[in-house]
Structure formats: structure tokens, C-alpha cells
Write a structure and sequence with these properties.
Helix content is about 30%, strand content about 20%. The chain is built from nine helices and eleven strands. It folds into two domains: about 140 residues, tt1808, chain A, CATH 3.90.1570.30; about 170 residues, Rossmann fold, CATH 3.40.50. It has about 325 residues and is an alpha/beta fold. Strands 1-2-3-4-5-6-7 form a seven-stranded mixed β-sheet, with helices on both faces. Strands 9-10-8-11 form a four-stranded parallel β-sheet. Strand 4, helix 2 and strand 5 form a beta-alpha-beta unit.
């Protein structure tokens, strides 16, 4: 079996785990489910490796490549864009497809063409078709909201370092940067600052759910107490009166929760399906000397897909 064939098998598997129905063109049936991934779909520039359909409409394309150590998937983005902009057989209209993926059996990169400045980023797994349907129904993207809808930060009752941290984080997110580090001195109010950012991302950024990750159960309890005590500057109600905050103590994530507080150990247990001894959440992994044999493999769990959380705050 060729490296290309092996990569396709893994891509098919990942698509199916995310809820896509993978079909060959000869057996095309767009009524089979919400999300259909069609292999070797014909375009006027040649067959695309996969074209994604949501509710019968073509919405995305996947350019598949073989696994190759050191291969830079970004060099194939022009090829993906060419297929996304091509005329598809049996499709009305010629607007470019919005969702672009490059994938090997190990790596997936994704670009949302509706972003203010579209650019690819590596993702852990394919998104569910329901997620793409939700994004298509929204008037703008998360990145667009972060770039254009975040109002000035009310500075009353905030320390200078807290103002600098929140505004710096929001400038970074507005530029489309996926990661940021806030470095503050002990006693400067890091958790309060983080909650201020969480509040603004929910209210003005339109975030659906945020994971607040801690390394011990005691820190999780403290964070939960701070969320309950927090009163935003533009609303007299407490944070927990405005948004549902769940401190995870079981494998279940409340579908109505907008903030989930979890230890790293608990989240790994949820993703892996392995039971956890609650006492394990009392030990900071940062203080434990671990060997390479103790490294944990993170696996995809369809019950907790990658789009479950739009932001992860590590406190």
C-alpha cells in the first residue's frame, strides 16, 4: 500500500469519527446525512481529493497529502485554494468554498475563508459537520468579532498591570494570533484578570464556551469562588448570574455551561475515557518529575470534539 493510500485511510477514519459520511463519487448520496465528504470530486481544474457537503451544499475542500517527515503542509495551500475556487460539477454558483483543509494521516491545517485575514492554523482533528453548519449561519466569524467588536476596557478599579494584560491579550487575539502568555507578579490578581478577559470574550467576542484549566483541585475551587464573586464593570450582577460556570467533577460537560473549570487530570480523564482517582487532582503535575514513559497520548473523543471550547485559559 502506498504512503498516499495509508494517509487517505487515516483521513477517512478521522472524518468518520467527527461525524462525516465518506463516500465515493460513484455512490454519491447527499441525503445520507448532514455532512458528506466526497472523494475525488470533479472540478474544472481536476478532481479535488475531498469536497465537503453540509445539508447538500458544498462548503469545503480537503487537500490530502502523504505523511512525510518534515513536509510543510502550508506549501499546498495554493492548491487547496485552487480547488475551492474551481467550478464544481453539478453545483450552482461559483463562489469559493469557505472551509479549506490540508491533511496528512497525522496533521490537519484549517483556513476559514470568511476571516478578516484568512490564514491557516494547525488543528487537532476535523470539525463536526454541525459545527460548520453553525458557522455558516452566523453573520461573522469569531476572529472577525475579536478584531472589530471588542469595546474599550473600562479601567475603573483595575490595576495598571491588569489593564495592560487584558488589552495586550485582546490586541494579540485581534491580530489572529492563536496563543498568548500573560506574565504577572505574584499577588497581582492573575485570576481576576483572567476572569475579566473571559467575561469580555463571552459578552463581546461571542464565545460559546471557555475552558479554565488548573493543575490542582484546590486551585479549581478557588477559581470557582472568584467567578462567583466577580462583578463586571458594566453590569451589577455577579458573573455566575450572567453565565453558567461548571467545575468539572464528573465525565459529563453540561451542554449549557459557558465556563468549565477543570484540572488537567480531570480533562485528560474525560478525553481518554479512563477513570480518575480524585486524589490525583490534588497533586500538581508541575511538581512531579515525570519520565518519557509516563507521557500521556491525547486522543480524540467524539463526545468532546475539538470545537467544544473556543478558548482555553490556563491559570
Amino acid at each position: 500500500m502506498t504512503p498516499e493510500s495509508l494517509a487517505r485511510i487515516e483521513i477517512d477514519s478521522r472524518l468518520e469519527k467527527a461525524g462525516w459520511i465518506v463516500q465515493d463519487l460513484k455512490k454519491l448520496d447527499l441525503s445520507a446525512g448532514l455532512g458528506i465528504a466526497v472523494r475525488e470530486y470533479p472540478t474544472d481544474t481536476g478532481p479535488a481529493d475531498y469536497v465537503l457537503f453540509v445539508a447538500r451544499d458544498a462548503v469545503g475542500v480537503i487537500e490530502a497529502k502523504r505523511d512525510s517527515a518534515g513536509e510543510n503542509l502550508t506549501v499546498t495551500e495554493a492548491q487547496t485554494e485552487r480547488y475551492a475556487s474551481a467550478r464544481l460539477k453539478w453545483r450552482k454558483g461559483d463562489a469559493p468554498l469557505r472551509f479549506l483543509f490540508e491533511a496528512t494521516g497525522q496533521i490537519i491545517r484549517f483556513t476559514d475563508g470568511a476571516d478578516p485575514a484568512p490564514r491557516s492554523r494547525e488543528i487537532f482533528h476535523f470539525f463536526k459537520p454541525e459545527t460548520l453548519a453553525t458557522w455558516l449561519a452566523q453573520p461573522d466569524t469569531l476572529r472577525a468579532r475579536l478584531a472589530g467588536q471588542m469595546p474599550p476596557l473600562p479601567e475603573e478599579n483595575l490595576r495598571d498591570c491588569q489593564i495592560s494584560a487584558v488589552t495586550g491579550l485582546e490586541r494579540s487575539l485581534a491580530r489572529g494570533k492563536p496563543r498568548a502568555l500573560v506574565h504577572m507578579a505574584t499577588g497581582a490578581g492573575k485570576t481576576f484578570t483572567a476572569i475579566t478577559s473571559v467575561y469580555r470574550l463571552l459578552k463581546f467576542g461571542g464565545a460559546k464556551r471557555i475552558l479554565f484549566l488548573v493543575d490542582t483541585r484546590n486551585l479549581g475551587k478557588q477559581a470557582h469562588q472568584e467567578f462567583m464573586a466577580y462583578t463586571p464593570p458594566d453590569d451589577g450582577r455577579k458573573f455566575t448570574e450572567l453565565y453558567n460556570v461548571q467545575r468539572l467533577a464528573s465525565p459529563s460537560i453540561d451542554p449549557h455551561s459557558q465556563v468549565c473549570i477543570s484540572t488537567i487530570q480531570r480533562m485528560y480523564s474525560i478525553l481518554s475515557g479512563e477513570p480518575i482517582d480524585e486524589s490525583a487532582e490534588d497533586v500538581s503535575l508541575n511538581e512531579v518529575q515525570q519520565t518519557a514513559k509516563q507521557e500521556k497520548l491525547v486522543r480524540y473523543n467524539p463526545a468532546v470534539p475539538v470545537e467544544t471550547f473556543e478558548f482555553i485559559i490556563i491559570d
